[in-house]
Amino acid sequence: MSKLLAYASLALVASLALVGVAVGAGGSSTVRGSATLPAGTSGPGLAKATAKCNHGRPEAIGLEIPQIESVAALGQRLRRRAGFRVDAINYGSAGSSVGVIGYCNDNAGPLVARKHTVTIPSDSPTTDGSVVGARCRKGERLAFGGFELARADDTNVYVGSQKRDGRSWVTEAINFEDPARVTSIAYCAERWRRLSTERRSLIVGPDSAARLKVDCPAGERAYSGGYRGEVTWSDAFVLLRAMKRTADGGWRVSVVNENPSASGKLTAYAYCG
């Protein structure tokens, strides 16, 4: 992946197509949206995919990006009125796509977004990036989280997003050039199920793709999940490609390691209840 300089003007291209709604038991449903991600031949190609609950409120959010190089996630967050949004960038020569997966539930309570934005410094070969945390207020519980990257190029690379505790959500990023803003988002509710954390890790080989599923204890299912991929200055470059629930109640994370010579670690998290 080349280290791109910032572009003075970026055109956001959103070609939205709703691709399906699945309804499950207990008032739960899954909505999906996709967008065409243009090639980055004359500047980075940008796109946003959106979806919206047909009934109920948001319970979690997932994403899908094709397993090709030079594509990265820039944001994963809720929109107004029970909507979901995923942003992505393409700085490769071939067109691609981005998809958002919204998980809805009739019994889910209203959510409040607690955001924290930090301008993270430029990293060096001796640093490991920055962690930005958002925290729910006293009396609130963390439902799940999201993130936004302000820089639309690969100088600012999304590394991971996961729970820190019952009220905090953290987002990790690493900068290869100029300082840039990173926003971590905690979606909070006054009433929300207490969730436990399950995790698994594996090593992703050079120039390889991998998937890792995390199962919940018997009788529980994954309400949401998170991940962390190892990204270093000159070695591992493990980038997110998908996060979503599985049909049997687990949580699956898909990644690609774009470094041709170094392995990197992937950790996937499932938040179960």
Can you describe what's shown?
The chain has 273 residues and is mainly β. It folds into 3 domains: 7-108, Immunoglobulin-like, CATH 2.60.40; 109-192; 196-273, Immunoglobulin-like, CATH 2.60.40. It has strands at residues 16-23, 28-37, 45-52, 57-64, 71-79, 83-90, 96-105, 112-120, 130-135, 141-149, 156-163, 168-175, 180-189, 196-204, 208-214, 222-229, 238-245, 251-257, 264-272. Strands 1-2-7-4-17-18-15 form a 7-stranded antiparallel beta sheet, with no helix packed on it. A 6-stranded antiparallel beta sheet has the order 3-6-5-10-13-8, with no helix packed on it. A hairpin with a 4-residue loop joins β1 (16-23) and β2 (28-37). It is globular. Mean pLDDT is 86; it is low at 1-25.
Count the beta strands.
Answer: 19
Helical content (DSSP H or I, runs of 4+): under 10%
Mean pLDDT metric: 86
Helix-strand string: EEEEEEEEEEEEEEEEEEE
* N-to-C CA distance: 39 Å
Strands of the widest sheet, in order across it, are 1-2-7-4-17-18-15
Outline the biggest β-sheet: 7 strands, antiparallel
User: CATH architecture of the largest domain, please?
Assistant: Sandwich
Task: Report the total helices.
Answer: 0
The backbone outline, from C-alpha atoms, is globular
Radius of gyration: 17 Å
User: What is the CATH topology assignment of the largest domain?
Assistant: Immunoglobulin-like
| Beta-strand proportion | over 45%
Unreliable spans are 1-25
- Structural class comes to mainly beta
Number of domains: 3
